[in-house]
């Protein structure tokens, strides 16, 4: 009987030791799996892309995100903020002007639209107003038509 009690005690002690070692491992694995379940597909793609970026590229992305976060709410809410953001890049501005020049608008309408767009860019971002979206919508329609036409070729 004494032998059985010592064997049972050793067995219980062994089970406790194994449990103390395995339970934290299982818990951490479960937490990691839970974290991955809470991430959606886009988050996982972003993490995969981040892993491929160099330090310089990561810094550029961080600076861009910081700039975007600092923009006034009216700019952030604009469905055409990408066109407004062209104020920061002369090459993008030239592309929008070219699209307007090649559109089927009358010459006077093209010149007015380009002047209005230049005005928006000159005030961007601090003096951007909701009404600017009307001009940006017209520019977006032109660039959309141009894109659709290029896809048909």
Describe it.
With 153 residues, the chain is an all-alpha fold. Helices cover 82% and strands 0% of the residues. It has a domain at 72-152. It has helices spanning 2-38, 41-52, 55-70, 73-77, 81-85, 90-101, 107-123, 132-152. The longest helix is centred in the first third of the chain and has 37 residues, at 2-38.
Provide a quick synopsis of the model.
Helices cover 82% and strands 0% of the residues. The protein has 153 residues and is mainly alpha-helical. The N and C termini lie far apart (92 Å).
| N-to-C series of helices and strands | HHHHHHHH
Assembly category: single chain
Helix-strand category: mainly alpha
**Major sheet description:** none
Radius of gyration: 30 Å
State the end-to-end CA separation: 92 Å
Strand content: under 5%
Mean pLDDT: 83
If helices are DSSP runs of H or I spanning 4 or more residues, what is the number of helices? 8
Categorize the overall geometry. elongated
Give the strand tally: 0
Ranges where pLDDT stays below 50 over 5 or more residues in a row are: none
Fraction of residues in helix: over 70%
């Amino acid at each position: 009987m004494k032998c059985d009690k010592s064997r049972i005690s050793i067995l219980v002690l062994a089970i406790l030791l194994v449990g103390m070692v395995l339970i934290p491992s299982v818990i951490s694995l479960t937490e990691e799996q839970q974290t991955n379940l809470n991430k959606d597909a886009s988050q996982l793609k972003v993490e995969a892309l981040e892993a491929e970026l160099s330090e310089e590229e990561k810094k550029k992305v961080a600076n861009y995100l910081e700039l975007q976060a600092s923009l006034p709410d009216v700019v952030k809410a604009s469905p055409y903020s990408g066109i407004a953001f062209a104020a920061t890049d002369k090459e993008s501005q030239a592309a929008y002007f070219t699209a307007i020049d090649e559109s089927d608008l009358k010459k006077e309408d093209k010149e007015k639209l380009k002047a209005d767009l230049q005005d928006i860019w000159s005030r961007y971002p601090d003096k951007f107003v909701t009404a600017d979206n009307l001009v940006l919508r017209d520019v977006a329609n032109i660039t959309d038509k141009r894109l659709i036409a290029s896809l048909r070729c």
